[in-house]
Amino acid sequence: MKKIDEILTEDIRSIAIVGHMRPDGDCVGSCMGLYNYLKDNYSFDVDIYLDDFASSLLFMRYSEQINANTDKTKAYDLFIAVDCSDRQRLGTGSEFFETAGRTVCIDHHISNQGYCEINHLNADACAAGEVLYELLEEDKISKATAECLYTAIVHDSGVFQYSSVTPRTMEIAGKLMGKGIDFSNIVAKTFYEKSYNRNQVLGRALLESVRLMEGKCIFSVISAANMEFYRVKPKDLDGIVESLRNTEGVEVAIFLYETNAQEYKVSLRSKDAVDVSRVASYYGGGGHIKAAGCTMHGSVYDVINNLTKHIERQLMEGSR
Ligand code: 5GP
Ligand code: MN
Questions:
Q1: Amino acid 61: pLDDT
Q2: Is the pLDDT at 223 greater than 90, yes or no?
Q3: Ligand 1: residues whose CB is within 6 Å?
Q4: pLDDT tens column, 200-211
Q5: Which of 85, 130, 256, 265 to mutate to test the pocket of ligand 1 (most atoms within 8 A of CB)?
Q6: What does the pLDDT look like over 19-65, one tens digit per residue?
């Protein structure tokens, strides 16, 4: 019996699928993959909830069903949290957590402490889509589900580039390709293609980036005024921090965008020497060793000063 059947016990009729705030490709792909799988193979009353996300991901089958339920008092038999490391980071639909009969988490964040009753966690998996795949029955995966799971894995692995990718990741990707999906189009349209405005903001962030610690650290900031000028939303800023990290000599990249007066959303990426999930967790955030985030208060100067203190300490420890 596959793990999914241990979760889908006989007493279950209704299911809510919920992702994390500001969902990325892995979150949307794994939530939609699970939704498609349940729709294809079972007759549950399933609802899916997600915050606003990149329009390039709307190609997934049933995406018009997202947030379709408007009954806020609905109590589900089963609540499945996907790609979400803690209770506080659940996005739209988080209100159904408390009243659900049972809660299940499917995730790959190292900072996940297991906030559900059943937790399927694997911090060695490169994407939540990979953790989910391992729970499913291969021959029940349709082409539509495979498109979602492939998208999930592509996005969290940087198109199979990051060190989190394992031989198993490639095996899973191969199985999904075998379902007849248009994999090159998925990569081109959802990962690389950006609107003109998104590219302009990326250019601006690179142009105004500043190097610190003899080039080992780089940071850039986009103000709320800039976001308004280029008419972009937070979801349009994905990928900027990865571009900063691609700078030669850089160990850690920091990208900030202003969310309120004196409040910044922080994205951290590292190459090898620094565990950025440790840095983010000092400020109430979390994530993975090489990709993490948090929200910080104060001026840009305060935020950068605080972050670089921790980064510098880790770099010193590593060089000893
Ligand atoms: P990003 O920089 O792309 O927003 O996030 C990178 C990683 O860090 C993701 O895996 C994301 O889930 C995690 N992350 C980002 N911001 C936060 C936060 O405020 N709290 C926690 N716990 N994790 C975060
Ligand atoms: Mn993920």
A1: 98
A2: yes
A3: 20, 85-86, 89, 109, 111, 241, 267, 285-288, 291-295
A4: 999 999 999 999
A5: 85
A6: 999 999 999 999 999 999 999 999 999 999 999 999 999 999 999 99
Name the residue among 117, 112, 142 with its Cα closest to residue 128.
112
pLDDT > 90: what percent of the chain? 96
- Ligand of minimum distance to the alpha carbon of 112: 1
Separation of alpha carbons 103 and 89, rounded Å: 15
Angle 143-156/25-41 helices, nearest 10 degrees? 160
CA atoms within 13 Å, Cβ hemisphere of 140:
19
CB atoms closer than 10 angstroms to residue 1? 6
Ligand with smallest separation from the Cα of 29 = 2
Tokens of 204: 């601006």
Which of 27, 82, 84, 109 has most ligand 1 atoms within 8 Å of its beta carbon, as the pocket-test mutant? 109
Given a contact cutoff of 8 angstroms between Cβ atoms, the answer to whether 44 and 79 are in contact is no
What is the arrangement of strands in the sheet containing 45-49, beginning at the earlier edge strand? 45-49, 14-18, 78-82, 102-107, 118-121
Q: Which of 257, 294, 297, 303 to mutate to test the pocket of ligand 1 (most atoms within 8 A of CB)?
A: 294
Question: What average pLDDT score do residues 148-166 get?
Answer: 97
259-318: pLDDT as tens digits: 999 999 999 999 999 999 999 999 999 999 999 999 999 999 999 999 999 999 999 988
Do residues 278 and 317 lie in contact, with contact meaning Cβ atoms separated by under 8 Å? no
Q: How confident is the model at residue 320 (pLDDT cuts 50, 70, 90)?
A: low
How far are the Cα atoms of 15, 78, 94, 100 from residue 104, in angstroms, in the given order? 11, 7, 13, 10
d(CA 149, CA 128): 9
84 CA: nearest ligand 1 atom: 12
DSSP 8-state class, residue 318: H
